[in-house]
Amino acid sequence: MNLYVHVPFCARRCSYCDFSIAVRRSVPSRQFAEAILREWGRLQDDPAWEDSPDLDTVYFGGGTPSRLDPSALTTILDGLRRDRRLSPSAEVTLEANPDDVTPAAAAAWRRSGIARVSLGVQSFSAPVLAWMHRTHTADQARGAVPILREAGFEDLSLDLIYGLPAELGRDWAADLDEAFALAPDHLSCYGLTVEAHTPLGHWTARGQATAVDETQYADEFLQLSGALAGQGWEHYEVSNAARPGHRARHNTGYWQGAPFIGLGPSAHSGAGGERRWNIREYAAWDTAVREGRDPVAGRERLNDAQRQLEALYLGLRTSGGVSFDLVPSDIRTRWIAAGWATGEGGRLRLSPEGWLRLDALVAEAA
To answer: Rounded to the nearest 10 degrees, what angle do helices 29-42 and 70-83 cross at?
Structure first.
């Protein structure tokens, strides 16, 4: 079983962020840990455990999980272990902001059982970080990596964002060079999207920011793909790449259809054809859990056609691709001729050029 814990607390909202967050000067770490374990206790009879009784991965995402007091992480992980087997080799990941990384914090994360850190760098450009409303500096990002290595983290991922408005003058190649120079094990690189109810959405609506040019967006994605190949990395999913042997097991579970359980506000769970999602706002979720009520906000059961569409979309996102029988032969032939895909061993795999057209190709094949 793969477990996701959504930690909503942030020092401020980033300009592009549409996630469920709670801006807090003081983080209620103990209260949050208690609420998470209450919700966890409700889920021990979930039918999904029948086929997957042990915890294979735990992922603390957010929000900014690194703002939690390390003792809260220890409390949560100890509580999980009391009910379910978590092997020493389990992948336990913490998302962290560079300004939260100190020698004391990193050592405490390791003692709690965190084995992997995903560091939210986004860019090494000071003007870009200010525009994004990030709370850290480029120097803090550079300094966080050796601190984490010294603490014993052998699996380290960096997050970057590409496709920024041209007026920022961001040098994507320079950011990639800096990232590789820090010798991480994994990169997650996301194209910027403009969500309506974010600061960026408001800026764009008022004409204070421009959406990225599609040609620039494509060029930067292909530049990323080429740089990864040049480093000998595996570009194993549209937004993720790793040195051999360092793919993210938790996220890979999502793409392969493995069962997952989510805890915390807005967290999603899925097993077989059932999907459910929690109350989005932190205060409402916390109240529901503390009053002993179910914090689930909605559920759905996918029919066979929906499950096949999900398998098609998730499979085409990855370097493993999908079986030929999910895509009609005439469409496969056209994609391969256009250079958008390759077909070998009964598997259809999209090329980087195909990944740029992912949504349109899925719609065509569905």
So the answer is: 20
pLDDT one-digit tens code per residue, 231-249: 999 999 999 999 999 999 9
pTM exceeds cut of 0.90? yes
Whether 228 shows a pLDDT value over 90: the answer reads yes
Q: Could you tell me which of 153, 59, 140, 78 has the C-alpha nearest to residue 109? A: 153
- Average pLDDT, stretch 280-302? 97
Nearest to 114 by CA among 163, 156, 173: 156
Are 251 and 331 part of one and the same domain?
A: no
Phi, psi of 76 (to 5 degrees): -65, -50
Q: What CATH number corresponds to the domain at position 63?
A: 3.20.20.70
| Residue linked to tokens 């480029």 | 138
Model confidence pLDDT, tens digit, residues 184-195: 999 999 999 888
Is the Cβ–Cβ distance between 248 and 35 less than 8 Å? Answer: no
N- to C-terminal Cα separation, the chain: 29
Contact 62, 7 (CB under 8 A): yes
Q: Please check whether residue 68 is in contact with residue 114, taking contact to mean a CB–CB distance below 8 angstroms.
A: no
Residue 297 lies in a domain: no
